[in-house]
């Protein structure tokens, strides 16, 4: 009996040891995937485009301006640039500035890896396109544009921004119409950008910092939530957490950018009085709530472990067994609307904190899930893997010229690198353009996603590979065929062969507009008033609903809160760029099975030999 038990133990050891290091999976991200995440932003640019990197996008909204008729250096409206919020045509300062802050933070965390990928210029261009607009939106010390375009009118029409002709009002914050949360987030974005540019372009860094100081003072001296100043925002980007979190967040970034102790004093005081330590419970980092990020940032700029402990307490709630539920397949699922976004936002917070417990126990797994390492082998990033979204909720990528969300059936253009909303709580997902809950994409969705990709990017690469893998231990992941412009043409035609056995013939997208269309721009100045009636919404008149993101990112108050109208959001990237792929395909499964069988045969042979020797 002893000999038998010994033999079994040896067999068990032989079988298990080769797989022991695979109990924890890690994610290897190609430089190309990081590039696609950034190209997503290029596809959502407004204004006069300086390049044709996204060939199916063209100049748009060239008349966006405040005051009316104000021009930029190109002779276009001074607010013509910036980023469209999602798959629509409005520009919303709060989520846009948040996105730039998080992109900047991601750059500061992973600068060396971004440089090794050869993507520094693209990354900084992405941030600068946003921060240039933020400085233009800060038209004077006490005036800050918070919204361009009427969301209700915008969402009642379906087509690319190049074809928009509706009026585009401009909503301006002032002393009489405050919006502290917006002002403080703009200050944070510009301060974070100033840190990046300090040793690269001192003049630009100084411009960012000058605006940051001014808009910070404006926000501090004129307290108030912007949704009360402009009720029309309530159904779209109301800040459910208020402005107290942004005050601490901005003060911390201002201290990091300036070294001025007065900002740190305010950050420490407001951190306590504004209840930041508990504000993250039941929610996470988002365009609305900055508490989780503030905890980590404060721990970094002060080296005070109490802030890190607050962050750890917050992250414990997101670990398996914590307060945030998980899907059966392993996605931390905060809520139905855009769960991928919240899971990845938290993944960046964990990565930025730097505690291996949370990086290996949470960030690794959440990124792997959205890249396709899940029971359905479903990637949630456009262009990644064999099974990925092709119909994100995005007007420009869809390419309709008939004001019809159903025509054509499939998106004409691929929105490469865009992270879609995500699955239901049972891991089920439908690639449906009309379902903004699961298939929305937005600037804020991709911000932390890009930051996390940068952290995992494979360094020292002189070229951008065409694969991105979920890797367990050192085993190489199989590469699946990338989706190309020809592939999407075949998908539309119903003839696409995901195995890659069919030949791909390059095609030219004929739907790209060669001419520029701009809608007229009207401004709502400080003296104008928007009463409650202006925010009323007739959702029945909207092709895709009327909300960009109306659910508060918290389940503590009411998990039954449902949007009365939906969101238009999505993004696009360059059809000509090579696309990454993710493990989880049949070839990878076959490889794993082959290795397992091989080890079993070897183990059996050795076991027999050992048994004979022991006898």
Automatic annotation (TrEMBL):
What is the active site of this protein?
A: 431, 440
Which of UniProt's keywords are assigned here?
Answer: Carbohydrate metabolism, Cellulose degradation, Glycosidase, Hydrolase, Membrane, Polysaccharide degradation, Signal, Transmembrane, Transmembrane helix
Keyword Iron among UniProt keywords: no
Q: Which InterPro entries does the protein's record reference?
A: 6-hairpin_glycosidase_sf (IPR008928), 6hp_glycosidase-like_sf (IPR012341), Glyco_hydro_9 (IPR001701), Glyco_hydro_9_Asp/Glu_AS (IPR033126)
Q: What is its EC number?
A: 3.2.1.4
Ranges of biased composition (kind: Low complexity) = 510-581
Annotated region Disordered: the residues are 494-585
Q: Per its UniProt record, what Pfam families does this chain match?
A: Glyco_hydro_9
Looking at the UniProt entry, the stretches that span the membrane are 590-614
Which residues fall in a compositionally biased region of kind Polar residues?
498-509
Write out the catalysed reaction: Endohydrolysis of (1->4)-beta-D-glucosidic linkages in cellulose, lichenin and cereal beta-D-glucans
Q: Where is the Glycoside hydrolase family domain?
A: 32-453
Which top EC class is given?
A: hydrolase
Please tell me whether the keyword Ribonucleoprotein is annotated for this protein.
Answer: no
Q: Which residues form the signal peptide?
A: 1-23
Any Gene Ontology biological process = cellulose catabolic process
Entry's Gene Ontology molecular function annotations: cellulase activity
Q: Which domain of life is it from?
A: Eukaryota
Q: Which family does it belong to?
A: Belongs to the glycosyl hydrolase 9 (cellulase E) family.
Record's protein name: Endoglucanase
Q: Which species? A: Cavenderia fasciculata (Slime mold)
- Source taxonomy lineage? Eukaryota, Amoebozoa, Evosea, Eumycetozoa, Dictyostelia
């Amino acid at each position: 009996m002893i000999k038998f038990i010994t033999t079994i133990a040896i067999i068990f050891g032989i079988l298990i040891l080769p797989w022991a290091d695979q109990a924890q999976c890690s994610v290897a991200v190609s430089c190309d995937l990081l590039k696609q995440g950034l190209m997503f932003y290029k596809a959502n640019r407004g204004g006069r485009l300086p390049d044709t990197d996204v060939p199916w996008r063209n100049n748009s909204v060239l008349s966006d301006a405040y005051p009316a008729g104000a021009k930029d250096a190109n002779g276009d409206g001074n607010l013509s640039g910036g980023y469209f919020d999602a798959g629509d045509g409005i520009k919303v300062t709060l989520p846009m500035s948040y996105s730039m802050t998080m992109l900047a933070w991601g750059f500061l965390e992973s600068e060396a890896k971004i440089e090794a990928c050869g993507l520094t210029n693209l990354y900084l261009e992405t941030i600068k396109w946003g921060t240039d607009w933020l400085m233009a939106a800060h038209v004077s010390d006490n005036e800050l544009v918070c919204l361009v375009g009427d969301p209700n009118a915008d969402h009642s029409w379906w087509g690319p921004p190049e074809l928009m002709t509706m009026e585009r009002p401009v909503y301006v914050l002032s002393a009489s119409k405050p919006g502290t949360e917006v002002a403080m987030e703009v200050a944070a974005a510009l301060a974070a950008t100033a840190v990046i540019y300090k040793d690269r372009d001192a003049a630009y860094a100084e411009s960012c910092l000058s605006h940051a100081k001014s808009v910070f003072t404006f926000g501090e001296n004129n307290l108030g939530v912007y949704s009360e100043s402009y009720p029309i925002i309530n159904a779209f980007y109301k800040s459910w957490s208020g402005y107290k979190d942004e005050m601490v967040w901005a003060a911390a970034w201002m201290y990091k950018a300036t070294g001025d102790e007065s900002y740190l004093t305010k950050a420490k005081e407001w951190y306590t009085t504004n209840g930041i330590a508990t504000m993250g419970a039941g929610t996470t980092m988002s365009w609305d709530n900055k508490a989780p990020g503030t905890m980590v940032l404060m721990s970094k700029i002060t080296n005070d472990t109490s802030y890190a402990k607050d962050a750890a307490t917050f992250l414990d709630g997101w670990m398996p067994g914590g307060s945030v539920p998980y899907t059966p397949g392993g996605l931390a699922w905060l809520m139905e609307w855009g769960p991928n976004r919240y899971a990845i936002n938290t993944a960046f917070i964990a990565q930025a904190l730097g505690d291996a417990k949370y990086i290996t126990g949470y960030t690794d797994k959440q990124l792997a899930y959205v890249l396709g390492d899940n029971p359905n082998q479903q990637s949630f990033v456009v262009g990644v893997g064999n099974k990925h979204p092709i119909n994100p909720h995005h007007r420009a990528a869809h390419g309709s010229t008939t004001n019809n969300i159903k025509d054509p059936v499939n998106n004409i253009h691929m929105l490469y690198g865009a992270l879609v909303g995500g699955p239901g709580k049972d891991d089920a997902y439908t690639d449906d353009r009309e379902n903004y809950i699961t298939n929305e994409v937005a600037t804020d969705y991709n911000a932390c996603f890009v930051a996390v990709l940068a952290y995992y990017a494979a360094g020292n690469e002189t070229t951008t590979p065409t694969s991105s893998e979920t890797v367990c231990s050192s085993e190489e992941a199989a590469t699946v065929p990338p989706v190309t412009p020809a592939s999407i043409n075949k998908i539309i035609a119903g003839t696409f062969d995901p195995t890659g056995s069919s030949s791909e013939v390059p095609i030219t997208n004929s739907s790209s507009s060669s001419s520029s269309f701009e809608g007229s721009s009207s401004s709502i100045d400080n003296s104008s008033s928007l009463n409650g009636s202006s925010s009323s919404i007739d959702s029945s008149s909207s092709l895709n609903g009327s909300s960009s993101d109306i659910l508060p990112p918290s389940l503590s108050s009411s998990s039954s809160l449902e949007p009365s109208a939906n969101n238009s959001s999505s993004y696009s990237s360059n059809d000509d760029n090579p696309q990454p792929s993710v493990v989880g395909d049949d070839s990878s499964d076959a490889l794993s099975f082959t290795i397992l069988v091989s080890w079993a045969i070897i183990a059996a042979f050795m076991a027999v030999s050992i048994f004979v020797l022991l006898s």
